[in-house]
Amino acid sequence: MSADLGRGLTSLFVVVLVAALTPVLVGLLSRLRIPQVVVLILGGVVVGPHVLDLADPESIELLANLGLGFLFLLAGYELDLAVFRQRAGKLAVVGWLIAVALAIAVVAALAELGVVRAFVPVALGLTTTALGTLLPILRDNNMLGGSFGSYVLAAGAVGEFLPVVAIAIFLGSHGRFIGLISLVAVGVLGLLLSLAPRLGRGGRIAQILSEGQDATSQTTLRWTVAMLLLLLVIASDFGLDVVLGAFVAGVVLHRWAPGNVEALDHKLDAVGYGFFIPIFFVSSGMGLDLHSIAEAPGRLFLFFFLLLAVRGLPTLLVYRSALGWPRRLELVFVVSTALPLLVALSEIGLETGEMLPENAAALVGAGVLSVLVYPAIAVAIHRRIARTPDEPGDPRP
């Protein structure tokens, strides 16, 4: 066995052990109501190179990227595109555009002061929402039910998808025009994939897929993973962020999911949340540059506050006629939570040399802190609302 393979297996074992211990720890500390995502990230910090140095993040990078892919696959899968024709989708787009305008103004001021150098990555980072990261928390706390769930999913999807589109156009490795063409190409491919199953419906192939979905061949799950990897490869080859390919794969899968859809849901949850997604979260904690953050902690808290001010606070105004005050406040903290795209934007900024290392670390650190704090506040508000009678102004279909 080569030394690299041995190191990789050791790192993978440590990461998987952290993932396995997480639900046990969360159960033992059930009174504190700590989200599993938080424990996974903190566990990554502990076993990572900056603390105990028990695992090497580079040796599990491929599996972590697949975990990120599954995270956005499931986020796209939860999204019904019809919501964008409804009030929830329209309000979500308006809210995001206001956040973009605020981000441009704020980052321009920070650039003038010499605090930031990478204008576009930082500005886009302040407009993101970590819907994929939030899904486990939202599901565990029954926050996706009813009409309020449609507002949450729409706001989260817009805060995840539109920044990815902007990354593809403005930060693509082949330039803006090629990035736009590549983006259209991936979208067209996604559309074709969504139409393809209809051509074979009722035929012999469809019968084979249906018969094998619960057998050892696991046909529907295998084809789902194959589609995910295909779109990840194409997005990567086009110079786009792999997040885009994963999100498109989820949207496509939502439209054509073959066979027993409920059974496929359980299988995707098992493969994603059972193995790949925890690896991504632990890896994110391992990659957190604690040294840079310790040298300039003020930057972390600045970005942490700006995530709430730029992305969250416009929600209070945009949804004033749709949601009551407590629901709007709950949504503020939901949409202000960010992480995966902050990691991607920091990596892009460092690769191009535009982003200062201390800002890259602070931006990711702010994302981790947002995952630790903002969903917990949203959950507390949600539980308080659940204990009180329905209010006027609560969401209606």
Automatic annotation (TrEMBL):
<keyword id="KW-0812">Transmembrane</keyword>
<feature type="transmembrane region" description="Helical">
    <location>
        <begin position="91"/>
        <end position="111"/>
    </location>
</feature>
<dbReference type="GO" id="GO:0015297">
    <property type="term" value="F:antiporter activity"/>
</dbReference>
<keyword id="KW-0406">Ion transport</keyword>
<feature type="transmembrane region" description="Helical">
    <location>
        <begin position="177"/>
        <end position="199"/>
    </location>
</feature>
<feature type="domain" description="Cation/H+ exchanger transmembrane">
    <location>
        <begin position="18"/>
        <end position="375"/>
    </location>
</feature>
<protein>
    <submittedName>
        <fullName>Sodium:proton exchanger</fullName>
    </submittedName>
</protein>
<feature type="transmembrane region" description="Helical">
    <location>
        <begin position="37"/>
        <end position="56"/>
    </location>
</feature>
<keyword id="KW-0813">Transport</keyword>
<dbReference type="InterPro" id="IPR038770">
    <property type="entry name" value="Na+/solute_symporter_sf"/>
</dbReference>
<feature type="transmembrane region" description="Helical">
    <location>
        <begin position="12"/>
        <end position="30"/>
    </location>
</feature>
<feature type="transmembrane region" description="Helical">
    <location>
        <begin position="62"/>
        <end position="79"/>
    </location>
</feature>
<dbReference type="Pfam" id="PF00999">
    <property type="entry name" value="Na_H_Exchanger"/>
</dbReference>
<feature type="transmembrane region" description="Helical">
    <location>
        <begin position="300"/>
        <end position="319"/>
    </location>
</feature>
<keyword id="KW-1133">Transmembrane helix</keyword>
<feature type="transmembrane region" description="Helical">
    <location>
        <begin position="360"/>
        <end position="381"/>
    </location>
</feature>
<feature type="transmembrane region" description="Helical">
    <location>
        <begin position="150"/>
        <end position="171"/>
    </location>
</feature>
<dbReference type="GO" id="GO:0016020">
    <property type="term" value="C:membrane"/>
</dbReference>
<dbReference type="GO" id="GO:1902600">
    <property type="term" value="P:proton transmembrane transport"/>
</dbReference>
<keyword id="KW-0050">Antiport</keyword>
<feature type="transmembrane region" description="Helical">
    <location>
        <begin position="117"/>
        <end position="138"/>
    </location>
</feature>
<dbReference type="InterPro" id="IPR006153">
    <property type="entry name" value="Cation/H_exchanger_TM"/>
</dbReference>
<keyword id="KW-0472">Membrane</keyword>
<comment type="similarity">
    <text>Belongs to the monovalent cation:proton antiporter 2 (CPA2) transporter (TC 2.A.37) family.</text>
</comment>
<feature type="transmembrane region" description="Helical">
    <location>
        <begin position="270"/>
        <end position="288"/>
    </location>
</feature>
